[in-house]
TrEMBL record:
<dbReference type="InterPro" id="IPR001320">
    <property type="entry name" value="Iontro_rcpt_C"/>
</dbReference>
<keyword id="KW-1003">Cell membrane</keyword>
<dbReference type="InterPro" id="IPR015683">
    <property type="entry name" value="Ionotropic_Glu_rcpt"/>
</dbReference>
<comment type="similarity">
    <text>Belongs to the glutamate-gated ion channel (TC 1.A.10.1) family.</text>
</comment>
<dbReference type="GO" id="GO:0005886">
    <property type="term" value="C:plasma membrane"/>
</dbReference>
<dbReference type="GO" id="GO:0015276">
    <property type="term" value="F:ligand-gated monoatomic ion channel activity"/>
</dbReference>
<dbReference type="Pfam" id="PF00060">
    <property type="entry name" value="Lig_chan"/>
</dbReference>
<protein>
    <recommendedName>
        <fullName>Ionotropic receptor 25a</fullName>
    </recommendedName>
</protein>
<feature type="transmembrane region" description="Helical">
    <location>
        <begin position="428"/>
        <end position="453"/>
    </location>
</feature>
<feature type="binding site">
    <location>
        <position position="92"/>
    </location>
    <ligand>
        <name>L-glutamate</name>
    </ligand>
</feature>
<feature type="domain" description="Ionotropic glutamate receptor C-terminal">
    <location>
        <begin position="8"/>
        <end position="406"/>
    </location>
</feature>
<keyword id="KW-0812">Transmembrane</keyword>
<keyword id="KW-0406">Ion transport</keyword>
<feature type="binding site">
    <location>
        <position position="343"/>
    </location>
    <ligand>
        <name>L-glutamate</name>
    </ligand>
</feature>
<keyword id="KW-0325">Glycoprotein</keyword>
<keyword id="KW-1133">Transmembrane helix</keyword>
<feature type="transmembrane region" description="Helical">
    <location>
        <begin position="132"/>
        <end position="150"/>
    </location>
</feature>
Amino acid sequence: MNNTAVTSYRVVAVQHPPFMMYNNQTGKWYGFCIDLLDAIRETVPFEYEVREVEDHEFGSLSENGSWNGLMRELIDKRADIALTSLWVMAEREKVVDFTVPYYDLVGLTIMMQKTKTSTSLFKFLTVLENEVWLCILAAYFFTSFLMWLFDRWSPYSYQNNRDKYKDDDEKREFNLRECFWFCMTSLTPQGGGEAPKNLSGRLVAATWWLFGFIIIASYTANLAAFLTVSRLEIPIETLEDLSKQYKIQYAPIINSPAYIYFQRMADIEMRFYEIWKDMSLNDSLSDIERAKLAVWDYPVSDKYTKMFQAMKEAGFPPDIDTALKRIRRLDEYANNEFAFIGDATTVKYLTMTNCDLTQVGEEFSRKPYAIAVQQGSPLKDQFNNAILILLNKRRLEKLKDKWWKHNPVKQNCDLENSQSDGISIHNIGGVFLVIFVGIIFACFTLAFEYWYYRHRAKVSELHQTTPPKIKMAKAIKSIRFDLHPAPTHGFQTLSQIRSRF
């Protein structure tokens, strides 16, 4: 049969969102590749009928040299076109023809579950340990009490030299309440206000200022680092990181392109090892030639051999649903962390539609997507011409935007681990609660002040209406002895005392 006269082509496909998808309700295929095929029909008029390959495989070469999946359908001429996100590979090009690539280079990548950072309204308090906070509080009370004690007993303080400082604009008596207020406000940008008059009190204040400066600087630096690091904590960033650790299990879907890639890389490393071993043990080599092969370290990398062995021990998931269960640690997989390695477009689509998943690291082993046809089919040249026209008209870029940027199933995920995001309210909201509690406390204090003022007014009225005899009796009962340090202006020098004798 002459293919050029055929107006209806048999298209075989494998479901791979968003390239090829099937609507069970309407019974129709849709996706990026269907839109691409419809766009090609504008240049090459034809009809087509799509069916899914029975084994749901893209097409891989077995040990006995036989093919399966889409490749088998084209080889046996049961289909004219293989349409899906199909990689161009060297072994496939020997049995089928590929058009020019219709999509960028796509590789393999890693997918993991997003790390869930713990949030707390009072996270700013966890920067310092509880023991440190208690020590700061103890230092605050001790310094306040010490400042009050020095001001009370120093002969050069304001309260012991009121006459000397009566003309000063700022008169501050450092009683216990003022000392507590001074030490607390000294830790804020507002400052503590006027310092004590006596030198000993000023030394205590200067020591407290230095202490507060160091504490605030250390707290600010650690708070910024603490909140930033908690948002950027990612256990694995590259394939190299994955290969060097043993805590997180990892594997691709069995018999997938990713599986074949690691299997072949491990096989190549083993072949190189055998070649090096045979050369090193070859008796026909001279002593000089053998000495050149004698090295302390193994000269060929065995990274993929170790990784493939680790994958075997972890177990290969049979399908993507099982891989997602292992990533999310559901059911029997709850005890082990898991990283999935697969097609970058598969990972991109899953992370686009699931906010709990994230892509890790860069792509590797990149290859283009293309349409496969039977070997020698005239459709290759016709499709090549149509795809190039679409590229020049930037139609393919519009299709990418449609199925990636503007896909209706795309989720608006919170980028909580993004470096560009600021600190969330869940981590800093406690600061606002502190303000709220402070305002509530101030309101209660205002109510107490109002009540105390009214109570004093009533007591004053009562004293004014009380007879003098009753006042005298109450005054006698209220007599008490108060001990105060002697004022400095009343001190007598030793020479004055001697002059009396």
